[in-house]
Amino acid sequence: MSSVIRSVQVMDLLARRGPLGVRAVAQQLKLPLGSLHRVLLDLAEAGVVDRTPSGEWELSFRLLEITGLQLERIDLPRLCRPFAERIAEATGETVNVNVLSGHFGVCVDKVRGNEGMQLDLSIGSRGPLSCGGAGKAMLAFMAEDKREEVYAMPLPVFTNHTIADPHRLREEIDRIRERFYSIDEQEVVIGVYCVSVPILDRFGHSAGAISVTGPSVKEPGAGIIPVVEQLWEACEHVSRRLGFAGAWPAAAPACHGPTV
Fold first, then answer.
1. 165: burial class by Cβ within 10 Å (0-12, 13-18, 19+)?
2. Looking at the DSSP assignment, which residues form a beta bridge with residue 169?
């Protein structure tokens, strides 16, 4: 078996099942441990795979930079773009489209509003899931075992509003799961606020998120519901296209009204 075929097999497995340890990859692909290790090192040198803090291997977004195949498969930016443009015009703030990549969120599209102060998040930039509107929205609807992995990781701190305690983060994620939207109150940048709703795949797990980010204060409750409803509409449309068939909003009935 050529090294190219082995590399493709490794990338395919990590795309479907990653992050995985080297022994788990070797066992599932029935490859010699030594040969597999060399393949992983070659892929890492090319920037195609990364190691997680726990030592497992996962795909990086280098593949998107080279071919864009993952985005073409689900076509997330194209599906989200009309809604993002409409929401940016209605709110005057920046709308970001994010996808889930391992333990991180990646910005894949954005539409700037007309407010003077904008969070200029560049396409392809990567951020943690433990803070920020989109990150927490995606974290809340990840598979439980994947959420636990994030809780066990060191939590980065950007401002004095960032949640740095795992217990507090769990409580925050539980609230997000109940109301089906997340709030970022200056957790990443002082003076910048965000509200976000997740995009779900056919299994009801996070595939991405759409967020509205800007200088206006955003708090859970009645005041933010008009923006949340726009995000619900957008994310439902995209989630349905990805195969999600459950009730929407995908949370407890309490999410249909203002909650705290």
1. exposed
2. none
pTM higher than the cut 0.85: no
Cis peptide bond upstream of 215, omega within 30: no
**Do the Cβ atoms of 6 and 31 come closer than 8 Å?**
yes
Rounded to the nearest 10 degrees, the angle between the axes of helix 133-140 and helix 144-152 is: 130
Taking the CA atoms of 131, 132, 133 and 137 in sequence, report the sign of the dihedral they define: negative
Residue 244 CA to residue 96 CA, distance in Å, equals 21
- Distance CA(153)–CA(53), nearest Å, equals 8
The single-letter code of the amino acid at 42 is: D
For residues 209, 212, 217, 223, the Cα torsion angle rounded to the nearest 10 degrees is: -80
- The answer on pLDDT for 79 being more than 80 is yes
Segment 226-244, tens digit of pLDDT: 999 999 999 999 999 888 9
φ, ψ dihedrals at 190, nearest 5°:
-60, 130
Distance CA 14, CA 64 (A): 15
Q: How many whole angstroms separate alpha carbon 56 and alpha carbon 4?
A: 21
Of the candidates 77, 127, 81, 72, the one whose C-alpha atom is nearest the C-alpha of residue 100 is 127
